[in-house]
Amino acid sequence: MIESSNTTDADHSEAIIAALRDARERQSAVYINAGGSKRHMAGRHCEAEELDVSAHRGIVDYQPQELVITARAGTPLKEIITALAEQNQILPFEPPLFGGKATLGGTLACNLSGPARPWGGSIRDMVLGVQMINGKCERLNFGGKVMKNVAGYDVSRLQAGALGTLGVLSEVSLKVLPRPQQTLTLRYAMSANDAIATMNRRAGEPKPLSGAAWLDGQLYLRLSGAASAVDSTAVQWGGEQLGDNDAPWQELREMALPFFTGDAPLWRFSVQSSARCTAQFGPTLIDWGGSQRWVRGEQSREQLDRAAADARGHVTLFRGGDRGSEVRPPLNAVERRLQQQLKQSFDPDAILNPGRLYSWL
Amino acid sequence: MNAPSPLIRRLRACLAAECIIEDDESQRPFECDALTIYRDLPLAVVLPETVEQVQQLLQICHALDVPVVARGAGTGLCAGAMPHAEGVLLTLSKLDRILEIDPVARTARVQPGVSNLSISEAAARHGLYYAPDPSSQIACSIGGNVSENSGGVHCLKYGLTVHNILAMTVQTVAGEELTLGSLGLDSPGYDLMALFTGSEGLLGIVTEVTVRLLPAPEIARVIMAGFDSIDAAGDAVSAVIAAGIIPAGLEMMDRLAVQAAEDFSHAGYPRDAAAILLCEMDGTQEEVAQHVDEVAKLFEQRGATSLTISGDEAHRALLWKGRKSAFPAVGRLAPDYYCMDGTIPRGQVTYVLNEIYRLSEHYALPVANVFHAGDGNLHPLILYDASDPAQSRKAEAFGGDILELSVRVGGCLTGEHGVGVEKLSKMPSQFSAQELAQFEDIKHAFDPALNLNPGKGIPILKRCQEYRALPARHQHD
């Protein structure tokens, strides 16, 4: 077992429980914060007193040969990635680090994954277990540190994308993977719709594809895996070879490309990978082999919802714009009722991140 | 003859006569799933032919406060589909159509009664397949796979059911339709698809599933290696992972399992080995050649006493045949066997297997071990004679000890078979009272009257008496 020796590591879970209990007694809601990197993205604006969990950090257990790491939720991802790199392992979902501020708990709560997501899975796919504190201030453990576990409901995965509205995450166990032996990027000039067709065709071939994105008239395909497989695929697929420089993919993952700068609203489409791009909404960036598409600019929510439905998916106002209104698409009455009842089962007094996911949740 | 009950009258109004089974004799084939020690007969077995009928049936049962137990192909191994004596057994086997295959987006939209293997068969002409492959894949249904979050021998690389589905349509206990997931890779709001997967029919009824299809690998090859100790085989497994290789499958079998499988299938397994490993590599031609080379060297360095690398596809199939027929092969050694399903950290395998051998002596019951070594999922097969009540009791106690051992070393009660009736009483060994209460609260959020598959999956304890005076419905005496 490899234990972290970082002097800032500490178990602050008792303090978190005490603070939550205090808030609950005062009937006061909390906004859970650690690194603060995602405060203005992913969810709605949340008016509540801050519950700072950033001191609750540190790797608790890392067993490289088990392919499992467990860390406290406030641990910066950067620290986890550094520890993994020493053992030649990676987080396969390539999460954004947001200048080193992103934490494990926040990343799971927002379900954020990078360009490898369609092939390497999301953090939702890799989570094996969580320790969390629900709205009743109970410390609960679900899942575990093993690859397969079907005892009880999968409460761990349910935390992905719940934006902290079901509990304060305390510890997270994740599946990790070996670092691919070799990585190589190919580039092709083509239109958005040609790129979508090409991404889907290539993803249907048994080759070591690990990234497929389109921006500014260029399709980028990334290959990762055994050196022999990467090299032979690159020869077969042609295109301009950009070598093993991973910087463009890191900039994409970190939203550091010029496309993402500025205050214009940033919309995230999560759609069927093969859906055609209708190009009526201004600047567009396509990632995840066609499944995730970013659009910039002031838009009519109704028009975007219609376009997303046509593409068999949904659209979220990811960053900027009006964050006091709903940022996610409307749900029907049955969906809404079940989401509310589920929320109440974890947080009957509605003290955890109220309104962050939906105004009514 | 008595007049039909209001339930039966309404079922008859909803379904064709041949889709309702009321008499005990015709119900017998439905009295249990593949874990045959738990049996019961329902008020009626219903076999709807359309999703609308499923909705209507749920509405009827909801109105009359009647329990509903969903059943797919009945291949489950935890009595999750055992009928409820006061309820209706909702069998989804007639909803068996593949509705759509999209070769470009690489998805298949199917009804819940479609068999796991038939999805891959239908996708094969596009060079695609559905990755999760439980041993029962010829028979088991995708709806059942979703309910149990089924795995198979290729989970380490390709994941479980939850990693390979995109969307599903479910019916609530009141018969309201709901779409979970999407054709994108996530959905707004809580991830109810993750919550429903593996929920054993306790939260809703799955009536349609959209699965992800993967490109079929160019080639797959398997290495079989014999070892003279469990320890050496366990070390070899760790060495493969440490070398940065994720095999498509990595299986271990111990001596008794190897001998039984060899006698049954003549796959060429080394009968004298204490354990064998089967390690499959798949991918591009070049990658597989590279990894086969590396793994063969690792196994030799770790003291493999024999080494066989599959030549052609027929040879590969033969090497797998032994493993895939291990359960029936072991089944020939005794009148009955009891299959366990704990998952443990890989590093604990030597300790756990030695403990299992010690327990085997203690209970005087032989045990054969089949192990998904890649993901730590252990299947000890306890041999016993079910017609001998003393042996049955011992087998059950032995199994319980193995599950508690799995939890004690940092693992869990069940890796892929589910809790069902079988492991219900063991849940407190893995979960605290507060954790069990949270499960119960989740159940209430979806099924307040506790009518979906009562008595399975999660223990219903404290609120049972409050909500209704029917403790027997939840398997509590």
Walk me through this protein's architecture.
- The complex is a heterodimer of chains A (361) and B (477).
- Chain A is an alpha+beta fold.
- Helix content of chain A is 27%, strand content 25%.
- Chain A has eleven helices and 17 strands.
- Chain A has helices at 13-25, 77-86, 104-110, 117-120, 123-126, 155-158, 192-203, 227-237, 247-253, 301-310, 333-346, and strands at residues 30-33, 49-52, 59-63, 68-72, 89-90, 127-133, 139-143, 168-175, 177-178, 182-189, 209-215, 218-225, 240-243, 266-270, 284-287, 292-296, 314-319.
- In chain A, the strands form five sheets. Chain A has a five-stranded antiparallel β-sheet with strand order 3-4-8-6-7.
- The two termini of chain A are 41 Å apart.
- With 477 residues, chain B is of the alpha+beta class.
- Chain B has helices spanning 6-14, 24-27, 51-64, 116-123, 142-148, 155-158, 192-196, 230-242, 255-265, 285-301, 313-324, 326-331, 349-363, 389-408, 427-430, 433-446, 462-467; strands spanning 20-21, 44-46, 68-71, 88-91, 98-102, 107-110, 128-129, 165-171, 177-181, 205-212, 214-215, 219-227, 249-254, 275-283, 306-309, 336-339, 367-372, 377-384.
- In chain B, strands 15-12-14-13-17-18-16 form a seven-stranded antiparallel β-sheet, with helices on both faces.
- In chain B, helix 1 runs antiparallel to helix 3 (51-64), helix 9 packs across helix 11 and helix 13 (349-363) packs antiparallel against helix 14.
- The longest helix of chain B is centred in the C-terminal third of the chain and has 20 residues, at 389-408.
- Chains A and B meet through strand 7, helix 6, strand 9, helix 7 and helix 8 of A and helix 7, helix 8, helix 10 and helix 16 of B.
